[in-house]
Design brief:
The complex is a heterodimer of chains A (315) and B (315).
Chain A (H helix, E strand, L loop, with lengths): L26 H10 L1 H11 L1 H19 L36 H37 L1 H15 L3 H12 L3 H27 L3 H8 L4 H37 L11 H8 L8 H28 L6
Chain B lengths: L1 H28 L4 H6 L5 H11 L5 H13 L13 H36 L4 H15 L2 H15 L11 H40 L2 H8 L4 H38 L5 H10 L3 H29 L7
Helix pairs in contact in B: 1-12, 5-6, 5-8, 5-10, 6-8, 7-8, 7-10, 8-10, 10-11, 10-12, 11-12
Classes of the chains: A mainly alpha (315), B mainly alpha (315).
Chain lengths: 315, 315
Amino acid sequence: MGNTHDDPSKNVAYDTTDTVPVGHHHESLSFQVKKKGPWQTAWKKLKRDRAAMTGVVILSVMILLSILAPILPLPDPEETDLANRLKPPGTEGHILGTDELGRDMLSRLIWGGRLSITVGFVAVGIAMFIGTILGLIAGYFKRFFDTVIMRTIDVLMAFPYVLLAIAIIAALGPGLMNTMIAISVVGIPYYARIVRGSTLTFREMEFVMAERAIGANHFHIIFYHILPNCLPPLIVAASLDVGWMILAASGMSFLGLGAQPPDAEWGVMLSEGRKFIRVAPHVSVLPGMAIFLVVLSLNLIGDGLRDALDPKSKS
Amino acid sequence: MAGYILRRLVALIPVLLGVTILVFSIMHLSPGDPAKIILGPKATEESLQQLRTELGLNLPVHEQYLRWIGNVFKGDWGRSIQLKMEVLPLILDRFGATLILTAASIFLAAFFGILFGVIAAARKYTFVDRFLMLIILIGFCMPVFWLGILLQIGFGLKLDWLPISGMYPPGERGAGELLKHLILPAISLSMGSGAIIARMTRSSMLEVLDHDYIRTAYAKGIRERKVVFKHALKNAFIPVITVLGMQIGFLLAGAVLVEIVFSWPGIGTLMINGILARDFPLVQGIILFVATTYVVINLLVDIIYAFLDPRISYE
């Protein structure tokens, strides 16, 4: 979550609301809060949340395996071996069996993780970046900018998410890159609205007024004082959204609109394996399990983060 | 009230305008010459020119839009390039199957979502609550297409209880046969929405159950079941209705994944085939149809909401 936030000088904007002790039983904590800053407190809370920590462990293992894929002793994920096709899990040399072309399932799942997980995080990154900028502009400058940005967002939100993603892919053409663009665009309104809401509140607060009074420019106020305060809800939203993006991207690949065979991508693997559910169900069940585990771990982390960063949500 | 509905209808105009512009742009955002994409690389200049004239691609963009939108209002939604049929009758013909699937799913999602949410709230922080919340979390994180495949393997292939794909129109082999084919797709589609509704119901109920009038009801000696389901649920219902309304639209669009898994002959399968065949008029038609339906449903939900909650002001 971030060394960037460890520098206490960057956290000046917090001293208005975030360090106020929440309930009487937290009073002893409030001194620590002031000293350590909200991010450390949140991390401390998160560490005590068993469900969230389970999520952190599952996700870390999956990310680590994906990163290490090139140096792990795995068979080539695209190497076919027709003599050994559709072998069940537990087969000698293929712990998780093989697929319809005799490719090693374990290797394909791990390499597939590289693709699926990366797409999820990158798509959220793009959506969050653009959404945040738009939200800051709309909320800070209001008037014309706010009207134009929010009306455009209204139109995007008039579509159900899945349909909007499909519509964009229909325009750009199928493919993994276009899928990533499509789901990023779908995510933009979500972030823009969160950031706009926070910005509208913070721009009227004393610490921003004070900055304005001493002549700080808009850029400085927006990026040094308003943005840091928008981060907690933004991070919670993003952590829950990565799972959704992974689901959406693999769903598009499943439909034939995203990654294409022979790519080792979980959605593609599931879609290809579906033709063999009678004889070799593991070929479609395992990639689905991988998607499920990543999404589950991200949701556990997201829920934990929400409780840790927003003291009110616990009730 | 009439004024409120009228204002909502007027507010719909810019949104629908935006939706049509976005849908119209699908063909024009597409990289390359749409006529070439549709007819393929081997097309002669003559046939390309003919198609350009047919689709109006020679006209300036704004004229093309006006022509297209004029035709849409007249009921002429263009001709499917691949199927050589009028788009609107094609959509209406297939929409019935999607509607049956969506309706069944929304019923399941609402029934079980509200039931589980209420029970979890009434038994808050006990084993029952934790267990239900775990089931709900799992349902929320499962990719629908994977759940569909698991159900096919479990109930279709292993137990041989239910058919794993296809559908008979209600008139053809009776309602029983339709129902049998509907069960697995409807369960798959309803799971995610059911989980969202359950979460919403639980949190809304938790808030209501804390109120004084609930304590008074208990104090009067009213049975728990009556207090929870009659006194509390009534007031906890308002936010649930909003979520429920949003879910109808999501299910309508999300049905595409389930339709593909279960070979359900709805508009989702039609749309995906259209995208893969670059059948722009068909894809535009379906996206416009679903998006408009979604917008109208949201409007209806807002109006129902205003009827139900006397605190909402129409001014």
